[in-house]
Amino acid sequence: xxxxxxxxxxxxxxxxxxxxxxxxxxxxxxxxxxxxxxxxxxxxxxxxxxxxxxxxxxxxxxxxxxxxxxxxxxxxxxxxxxxxxxxxxxxxxxxxxxxxxxxxxxxxxxxxxxxxxxxxxxxxxxxxxxxxxxxxxxxxxxxxxxxxxxxxxxxxxxxxxxxxxxxxxxxxxxxxxxxxxxxxxxxxxxxxxxxxxxxxxxxxxxxxxxxxxxxxxxxxxxxxxxxxxxxxxxxxxxxxxxxxxxxxxxxxxxxxxxxxxxxxxxxxxxxxxxxxxxxxxxxxxxxxxxxxxxxxxxxxxxxxxxxxxxxxxxxxxxxxxxxxxxxxxxxxxxxxxxxxxxxxxxxxxxxxxxxxxxxxxxxxx
Length: 365
What we know:
alpha+beta; 5-stranded mixed β-sheet; 15 helices; 40% helix; 11% strand
């Protein structure tokens, strides 16, 4: 078996996976060209998880030692969803898709298939820090658009796009008429793609900056600080002044976090940063080899069984064992619940419903 290699794929100037960024801030595409494609432990885990998903969907073998138990559990759940729950007898895995209408725009779709007159596009997300929405997801919409424009899929009536993100315990799907989807892409994405390719447009700050390689050197971020300083000149800030600063809080916090990381990277690379140095931070004790530890403890007369505990299956694996139908029944009977999340401050335009403040919540503040 040939091991899939996702690391060495070509990177597009206008990657569909970065569409949220270059649509919101078209100049970011060209500004980011001068920065290397840096990886991270989370990104490397994601790459490895995608490679395992490809192996399973191609029904090939793998060495379980190469992957973590959680990675295997999630990949098996993904493969089960594609082959059993969607019931796609024929599907295509890790296919490069060229996006017509936007220069240098291409990417690799995780999985797609056709059943009847419906095109199914599935995107696997291994990350758990940010829950990715499916509705109006630009990355999947561009993949679907590229597929719909191919002669083989010209008879498709509708498109079902799914974000499979097992570590958030959520499955998100957006189903849309094929003609409507193509119109939406052509009106709301392609014009910005052309603008981004030409290096035109204005810089804009937002959630999309999180993934921008040029964010630390971005003039739009630097321009925030004189504005904020001038706003807070009064001896006691008014509510309007505080709200004007709060309106930019997310951007400022994100930028300062990036700036500190930049300084850290400079020092780690041997480059001085005036007024700053690195020191050893707090660490916690770990056990490098638990089996060796257990053997040693057992030699003192303590039962080795007391050093281990039995753990229940996670929801993803549980669903695979008992089936989707019984899973739904257990949810309806209240044996599986989704507790309320912690109150989170967001902007008013956030699509989520406002939290109804209950009396028991007030007691915590």
